C-alpha cells in the first residue's frame, strides 16, 4: 500500500491523465462525439494554445475536440484528476466503504465536492445493460431480502420492517457474484419480475420460506427453501447444500451502511448498493486485487454522467 501511495498518478496531472487514457482507451482513442476510432483521423493537439490531453476528431461531420474525460463521470469537473484518482482508489480499496468526510479531510477538498465525487464514482460502479442470467446450467442461486434505513415520511413501527427500505439480493453460488436491488416492498409484484429477469429458468433456486417464493419457485427447474422459524439454516440433500447463508453473509453491506455511512437517503440507496456489489464482485477471493479493482472502475466511467440541480437554480 505504501508503494501505491507513491504512485505519481496521485501527484502529477500528466501521469494521472496518461493512466486514465491507458484504461479508457485500451484499444485506441475513440471520439466521444461521433464514435470515430480510426487513429489516423484523430490528432493530438499540442502547443501553447492547447491544454495537455486535447485531441481533434478529423471526421468531416464531426471536427470536435475532446479529452479522455469527455462523456465520463469526470466531465466538466474542476477538481484535479489526481484527486479523482485518489478518491477512486480509496473507494475501491475500502471493504466497508469510506465516508465523504474522511475523503474530504484526506484530499483537502470541500465536503460538498467530495460527496458529489463519490456519488459519481458510485454511478460508474453501477452495471448497466443486459447481463447474462444467473444459475445457467442448473447452478444454484440464493435469493433473500433485507431491510435497512428508514422510509421518508413513514413513522417508525414498534415491530416489523414496514418503515424500512427493502433490498433484494441474488447470489450466483457458482460465480460468487451478487446483484442487489432497491424494491418498494417484499411482495410478489415487486420481487417476481426481478427474479425472472435475472435468473435462468434452469437454475436451482434457494430461498427462505417467505410466501412470495411459493409459486415463483415453481417456474425454475428446482426450488428448495430453509425454514428459519424452526431454526433451520442449512440442510443436505445428497451432495447439494441447501442454504441461504451465503447471501445472508453479504452483511458487509449493512455493516458498511450502519458503521461507515450511517445515513442514506432513499433516493440514493441504489448507488450505495452498486458500490457494495461492485466491490463484492471484484474481490480478492475472485482473483481481483485493489489495483485490478481500480482499473475495472476506471473502465466503468465511460458513458455515464451524473448531474444534480443546484438548490437555487430552476433551469438545470
Brief overview, please?
The protein is of the alpha+beta class. Helices cover 32% and strands 16% of the residues.
Mean pLDDT: 92
Tally of strands? 10
Q: Biggest sheet, strands in spatial order? A: 6-5-4-7-8
State the domain count: 2
Number of helices: 10
Instruction: Classify the secondary structure makeup into a structural class.
Output: alpha+beta
Strand count, sense and barrel status of the largest sheet are: 5 strands, mixed
Mass-distribution shape: globular
- Elements, N to C (H/E): HHEEEHHHEEEHEEEEHHHH
**β-sheet strand percentage:** 15-25%
Q: Span between N and C termini?
A: 41 Å
Helix share, percent: 25-40%
Output the radius of gyration: 23 Å
**pLDDT < 50 stretches:** none
Features:
single chain; 316 residues; alpha+beta; Nucleotidyltransferase, domain 5; five-stranded mixed beta sheet; three-stranded antiparallel beta sheet; 10 strands; globular
Q: How would you describe the overall organization of this protein?
A:
With 316 residues, the protein is an alpha+beta fold. The chain folds into two domains: 2-125, no CATH class; 136-248, 2-Layer Sandwich (Nucleotidyltransferase, domain 5), CATH 3.30.420. The protein has helices spanning 2-5, 13-24, 81-93, 100-107, 111-125, 188-198, 245-248, 252-261, 269-281, 290-299, and strands spanning 42-44, 55-57, 65-66, 140-148, 165-172, 177-183, 204-208, 222-226, 234-237, 240-243. The strands form three sheets. It has a five-stranded mixed beta sheet with strand order 6-5-4-7-8. A hairpin with a 2-residue loop joins strand 9 (234-237) and strand 10 (240-243). Helix 3 (81-93) packs across helix 10 (290-299), helix 4 crosses helix 5 (111-125) and helix 5 packs across helix 9 (269-281). The longest helix is centred in the middle third of the chain and has 15 residues, at 111-125. The radius of gyration is 23 Å and the shape is globular. The mean pLDDT is 92.
Amino acid at each position: 500500500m505504501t508503494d501505491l501511495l507513491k504512485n505519481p498518478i496521485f501527484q502529477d496531472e500528466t501521469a494521472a491523465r496518461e493512466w486514465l487514457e491507458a484504461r479508457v482507451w485500451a484499444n485506441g482513442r475513440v471520439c466521444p462525439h461521433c464514435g470515430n476510432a480510426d487513429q489516423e483521423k484523430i490528432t493530438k493537439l499540442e502547443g501553447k494554445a492547447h491544454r495537455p490531453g486535447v485531441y481533434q476528431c478529423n471526421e468531416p461531420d464531426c471536427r470536435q475536440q475532446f479529452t479522455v474525460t469527455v462523456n465520463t463521470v469526470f466531465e466538466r469537473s474542476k477538481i484535479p484528476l489526481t484527486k479523482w484518482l485518489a478518491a477512486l482508489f480509496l473507494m475501491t480499496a475500502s471493504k466497508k466503504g469510506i465516508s465523504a468526510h474522511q475523503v474530504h479531510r484526506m484530499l483537502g477538498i470541500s465536503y460538498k465536492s467530495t460527496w458529489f465525487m463519490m456519488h459519481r464514482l458510485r454511478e460508474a460502479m453501477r452495471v448497466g445493460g443486459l447481463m447474462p442470467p444467473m444459475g445457467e446450467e442448473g447452478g444454484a442461486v440464493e435469493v433473500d431480502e433485507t431491510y435497512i434505513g428508514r422510509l421518508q415520511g413513514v413513522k417508525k413501527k414498534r415491530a416489523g420492517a414496514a418503515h424500512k427500505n427493502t433490498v433484494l439480493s441474488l447470489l450466483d453460488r457458482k460465480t460468487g457474484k451478487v446483484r442487489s436491488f432497491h424494491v418498494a416492498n417484499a411482495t410478489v409484484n415487486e420481487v417476481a419480475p426481478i427474479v425472472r429477469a435475472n435468473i435462468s429458468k434452469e437454475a436451482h433456486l434457494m430461498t427462505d420460506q417467505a410466501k412470495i417464493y411459493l409459486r415463483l419457485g415453481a417456474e425454475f427447474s428446482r426450488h428448495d427453501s430453509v425454514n428459519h422459524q424452526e431454526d433451520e439454516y442449512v440442510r443436505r440433500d445428497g451432495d447439494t447444500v441447501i442454504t441461504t447463508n451465503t447471501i445472508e453473509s453479504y452483511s458487509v453491506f449493512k455493516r458498511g451502511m450502519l458503521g461507515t455511512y450511517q445515513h442514506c437517503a432513499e433516493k440514493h440507496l441504489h448507488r450505495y448498493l452498486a458500490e457494495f456489489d461492485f466491490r463484492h464482485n471484484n474481490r480478492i477471493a475472485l482473483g481481483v486485487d485493489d489495483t485490478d479493482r481500480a482499473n475495472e472502475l476506471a473502465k466503468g466511467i465511460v458513458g455515464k454522467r451524473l448531474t444534480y440541480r443546484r438548490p437555487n437554480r430552476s433551469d438545470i
